Amino acid sequence: FPETHGVTFRIQINVKEPDTDVLLKLLFHLPVNYPSTVPEISVNSAQLTRAQCMDVKEKLLEQAKEHLSEPMVHDLILWLQQHLKDVIKQSATVSNEKTTLSKGRSTEDGIWMLLLHLDHVRAKTKYVKTVEKWASDLGLTGRLMFMGKTILILLQGDRNNIKEYLILQKTSKVDVDSSGKKCKEKMISVLCETKVQAQHKRFQMFEVKEYSTLDQLQKEFETAGLTTLFSEFVPPLLK
């Protein structure tokens, strides 16, 4: 607050709550024409979240507007001591609603599926471990599939996590080049990125599998209800 105009003072109050004492640090800046205008208020507390402090401040300003033209700081502090519990409780329900909303949004995005084709893998053991770790960290299920020289990664999970996986796959040194130096994945193609439909089966875990024939690979896709995905994207890779 610009100290030159009006008066600024800090007040610390301790509000006793059933579970814990809340120490509030309040900063009031009284403008020159106070109390005809409301003070500027800042609220800080180690026991409250940033959002709760903002809510407390909003509520104090609402109260201040009701006391215009009469000295109000003392009243505001009394009001806060009596009502802090309600403000915090309200703040918690609002933030819960917000999280439920954002959760709702992500489920609305639904579960997504990603099919990747890798041109080659030189350091296979390391590569497999890395992909398994990423899938596990991001809560993705699916398959890393080897059939002859064909390497496919099929992933299912939250859309944001799938995007995160792609970033890791493209920006991390996950393999080695012909001279054995660590290198980023340059030869990767995204064959398909789509929402998981009702007819698709959900993979329960992430597994690494080897197939000796195209039939075996095709069965893996068929079992997961992904026959169309297979016929559209896999045979062209083998030509």
Strand content: 25-35%
Helix fraction bin: 40-55%
| Total individual domains | 2
**Average of pLDDT:** 81
Radius of gyration from CA coordinates = 29 Å
Low confidence ranges: 97-108
Structural class: alpha+beta
What is the CATH architecture annotation of the largest domain? 2-Layer Sandwich
Give the CATH level 1 class of the largest domain.
Alpha Beta
Predict the CATH topology of the largest domain.
Alpha-Beta Plaits
Please give the alpha-carbon distance between the first and last residues. Answer: 70 Å
User: What global shape is seen?
Assistant: rod-shaped
User: For the report, how would you describe the main beta sheet?
Assistant: 5 strands, mixed
Task: Write down how many β-strands occur, each being a DSSP E stretch of 2 or more residues.
Answer: 10
| H and E string | EEEHHEHEEHEEEEHH
Number of H- or I-type helical stretches: 6
State the strand order across the main sheet.
Answer: 9-4-6-5-10
Subcellular location: Cytoplasm; Nucleus
InterPro entries: RWD_dom, RWDD3, UBQ-conjugating_enzyme/RWD
Protein name: RWD domain-containing protein 3
GO cellular component, one term: cytoplasm
